[in-house]
Amino acid sequence: MRKRIYVHVADDHKIVIDGIIAVINTDNDIEVKGFSLTGKEVIDWFSIKKNKADVLILDITMPVLDGLEVVKFLKENKIRPKTIIVSSYNDIKIVQEMIRLGCRGYITKNNAGAHIINAIKAVAKGEQYFSDDIRNLLIKSASGQDMPDGDIPDKFLIEALTEREVEILKLITKQLSTPEIAEIINITPSTVETHRKSLLRKIKVKNSVGLALYAIKYKIV
User: Fold this and answer.
1) What are the distances in angstroms from CA 36 to CA 75, 129, 149, 213?
2) Per-residue pLDDT reduced to its tens digit, 9-27
């Protein structure tokens, strides 16, 4: 008799949870052990000793605590469900970060139904599993190809900015010109422009007004 695989499902939309559970219930080897609608509920569930799950299905965008914080907490507290990220975000940087933090799989939500059973069984055996689109991104990245920007959580985007980019972003919100910023932080105007272009690309806005609005919205200033 095969060992049953126990799974906990976490997403901030109950309809998504219901859909994932419906697919899981078609396989007799897998059993759902509860679900969570917030990151805090995930942590609380796993913090109860009697609650055990072999695999955690986890969204990144979660209320109270997001998926990044959940994964970090579980890692720091040596709670080790094999985690599969099921997310609408498909930027290579967030995929690589979740792998670095120990996640065993990554599936985009529009591919979840086709992959979730195979993903659960693969990671339960200690393997990694990625939906086809994510696997292709990883292959392209490993071969050194230029990667297009994908969707990424705003919080992760802020963390992905360098200290120098954040410094320049703050000065841009003060409506300082490129020469003025260069003089204040003692770099060349061309270097300021390089950082400005990088900020525009990362934050996906067209001008300094967009940068300033972003900085205000996410309390960088």
Assistant:
1) 18, 22, 30, 33
2) 999 999 999 999 999 999 9
Of residues 1, 33, 210, 219, the one with CA closest to residue 120: 33
Beta strands in 3-161 (DSSP E): 5-10, 30-36, 55-58, 82-87, 105-108, 129-130
Q: Which two tokens stand for residue 197?
A: 């272009």
Amino acid identity, position 109: K
Q: What is the pLDDT of residues 88-125, one digit of tens each?
A: 888 888 898 899 899 999 999 888 889 999 999 999 99
Where b means 16+ CB within 10 Å and e means fewer, 38-64 reads bbbbbbebbeeeeeebbbbbbbbbbee
The candidate with the shortest Cα–Cα distance to 112, out of 16, 29, 33, 10, is 16
Tally of CB atoms within 10 A around 16? 17
């195979």: which residue's tokens? 118
Q: Which segments within the chain are labelled E, that is strand?
A: 5-10, 30-36, 55-58, 82-87, 105-108, 129-130
Q: What is the pLDDT of residues 68-84, one digit of tens each?
A: 899 999 999 999 999 99
- Count of CB atoms within 10 A of residue 147's CB? 12
- Determine what percent of the chain is predicted with pLDDT higher than 90: 58
| Burial zone of 197 (CB within 10 Å; 0-12 exposed, 13-18 middle, 19+ buried) | exposed
Q: State percent of the chain over pLDDT 70.
A: 92
Task: Report pTM.
Answer: 0.72
Q: Are 117 and 140 in contact (CB under 8 A)?
A: no
| Strands 129-130 vs 82-87: parallel, antiparallel or unpaired | unpaired
